Amino acid sequence: MGRYDIAVIGTGPAGLSAAITGTVRNKKVLLLGSKDLSLKVTKAHKIANYLGLPNAGGEELSAAFQKHIDEMGIEITEDKINAIYGMGDYYVLQGGENVMYEATSVILATGVVAGKPFPGEEENLGRGVSYCATCDAALYRGKNAVVIAYAPKEEPEADFLAEMADHVYYIPMYKEEPQLSEKIEIVRKKPVSMERDGSKMKLVTDDGEILTDGIFILREAISPKQLVPGLVTDGPHVAVDLQMKTNLPGCFACGDIAGTPYQYIKAAGQGNVAALSAVSYLDELKRRSK
Amino acid sequence: MLKEILNDNLDEVKGCEYAVVDFNATWCGPCKMMAPVLDDLANEYAGKVEFFGCDVDENQYLAQEYGIMSIPCLGFFKNGEQLDQSIGFKPKQVIAAWIEGHLN
After folding, report:
1. Which of A5, A52, A122, A271 could form a disulfide with A14 if both were Cys (CB 3.0 to 4.6 A apart)?
2. B15 touches chain A (CB under 8 A)
3. If 0-12 CB within 10 Å is exposed, 13-18 middle and 19+ buried, where does residue A165 land?
4. Cα separation of the two ends of chain B
């Protein structure tokens, strides 16, 4: 599939606007997201301040967006990006089913992720807290682990971990009854916080504590830091300057993920700025390689 | 290419003034992504910092000894002593800055 000039992640107003501007500037753009565009747009009741479309309803605005990208010949690649790796002068984007995309620059327009990390979670990441059971399972041979899972689809990961580890506690954060191997102990408690305790991790719950070698947290939503390793964030947002630049050269962010106010027209405007910054970045790279 | 550490033998690392050890495994996706980045850095820092690869399945004793709980994990060694770890995939620029921070 070759290397794209710009990969845009997200199909809300910020992402669409970035893809449009990138296309206008004749760059090879990969637009990743949902063909339904943004639920946050579609479900809006009435939007009073979107320039040119007074009092548009969410569906009306969404249809106008769709018409715009259709007319420009922009297509959406429906895929969920799990990780974006900065390789130096390009990025590798890892999609579902391990499809890899390559792009020289990246524009993050994924919206904000709700849900805060647990106290003690980020401090201990890689030191007893992990987000990937299949990645780190082998390091838990002869040890025990706690899995905190937010959806039934994580159950195979816990089963995999249980093949390696001595004992696995499984805390489902959903209502369905987990279908797990018999080796796994299901614990219906609410995690509150986690902390290091000597060589172990201590998980504090609403009903006592669990001492364990490691805690695996398997969530649906990915925080920006997890999505792009090495990215500097500011709370739930990506830290950007007025050109929508992040701390990583060639990586830009726009829309809700870049901070408040959460407004459709602001997102669209920032998408435009991010795309133009990406274009300058690409031109600069080209100049330097000559 | 990184020099492979075999049989839990860290002698060559201990003989280096500055060394980076990449703890990895064949089944670890982010480790695979890190490999070309480290190859690049090994070239850029040739003569200054030595780069080693350490498969945690092949070198289980070392993985225990150096407290590897998550991979990829880079260990920065000065005169054989591990000064710092960098956990998880990191972009090239970030690893370069991390190495610079330890050189003096």
Report:
1. A271
2. no
3. buried
4. 25
B54 touches chain A (CB under 8 A): no
**In order of start, what are the domains of chain A with their CATH numbers?**
3-114+223-289 (3.50.50.60), 122-218 (3.50.50.60)
**Contact B97/A at CB under 8 A:** no
Whether B91 sits inside 8 A of A87 (CB atoms) is yes
How many domains is chain B partitioned into structurally?
Answer: 1
Look up residue A132 and give its two tokens: 């990937």
Percent with pLDDT over 70 in chain B? 100
Q: Do A139 and B30 touch (CB under 8 A)?
A: no
For the cut 80, the answer to whether the pLDDT of residue A275 exceeds it is: yes
User: What amino acid is encoded at A83 in this protein?
Assistant: A
- CATH at residue B35: 3.40.30.10
Is any Cβ of chain A less than 8 angstroms from the Cβ of B25?
Answer: yes
Q: What is the pLDDT of residues A164-211, one digit of tens each?
A: 999 999 999 999 999 999 999 999 999 999 999 988 999 999 999 999
Q: What is the pLDDT of residue A114?
A: 67
Task: Find chain A residues with C-beta within 8 A of B35's C-beta.
Answer: none
> What's the pLDDT tens digit per position in A48-64?
999 999 999 999 999 99
Nearest chain A CA: its distance from B14 CA (Å): 24
Between β-strands A233-234 and A144-149, what pairing exists: parallel, antiparallel or unpaired? unpaired
Query: How far apart are the C-alpha atoms of A194 and A148, rounded to whole Å?
Result: 12
Asked whether the predicted pLDDT for residue A87 surpasses 70, the reply is yes
